[in-house]
Amino acid sequence: MFKAGIKLIAAAMLGAMVSVAGAEGFPERAITMVTPFPAGGATDGLARTLAEHMAKTLGQSVVVENRAGAATTIGASHVARSTPDGYTILLATNSTLVTNRFLFKELPYDPDAFAPIGMIGIGPMVLLTARKDNFKSLADVVEAAKAKPGAMTIASFGAGTSSHLAAEYFQQMANIKLLHVPFKGSTQALPQIINGDVDLFFDMVSTGMPQVAGGKVDVQAITSAKRMSTLPKLPTVAESGYDGFDITAWFTLVAPPGTPAVETQVIGKALKAALADEAVRKRMLVMGIEPSDGSPEALTSQIKQEIPVIQSLVKRANIVVQ
Description:
Helix content: 40-55%
CATH class of the largest domain: Alpha Beta
CATH architecture of the largest domain: 3-Layer(aba) Sandwich
Strand content: 15-25%
Structural class: alpha/beta
Order of helices and strands: HEHEHEHEHEHEHEHEEHHEH
Number of strands: 10
Number of helices: 11
Largest sheet: 10 strands, mixed
CATH topology of the largest domain: D-Maltodextrin-Binding Protein, domain 2
Shape: globular
CATH superfamily of the largest domain: Bordetella uptake gene, domain 1
Radius of gyration: 19 Å
Oligomer: single chain
Distance between the termini: 17 Å
């Protein structure tokens, strides 16, 4: 399981050798795109943006279904057990395909067994802070955390998710101790930081920044290695004194194990068409997600690069879900 998505890579290679002629007539009915996060969050918004455009290319509806919880394993295991006919697909994240293999003693699905469709994009997170704390910089956050070790709370959109990993990595680099409070998604965590019930939260740009604009929370830094072009005044965690800090979330489409390559290729073409559409790309950039090329090769490359990095981070942080 740990050998960098070998099955995913093999499936992608097999797909390249199969003629798309075998997919004639597909799809003949609606396709269900499962997202492992609640409605209203960043992943849900991305899914609905893609589904709307992909439906035009496919000639059939693409219905988004939310199956949230357990570090994306609920949605992922549902899709893994679904009939491999191309009519059920999963909007997976790095939690689903990389991180979870190091968190669970027994996963209810094999992260390397999914049939790859294509890479969607990569997006950084922003560090939100509660208005009640009146933090003006990342230095203020660290100073307050060191004054009362373990007292400051940090929310995440699930144990083992990118939000949680960013929190753990930040604690390691800043040499501080925070109390982790996991939720099922951003839509559950945001009210808690808005109300001041938690102090910190690494959230996606699309859901976090509107709260900043509305004066409900403050923002201190972004988790990417470089500043975002759409948020040029927001400093990175790295340039705020923690050189090398770079934690992002990424998104991809996969299908149940054993899904024929002819079907995944048809869906993959619709994904590429969506990612090439200027309106979709602009929408994704507003959401803080850099569009990828939609290829399965980009997905397998991302998995191979990230496995050793995440394995090391999880081990150092001693993160255990089950």
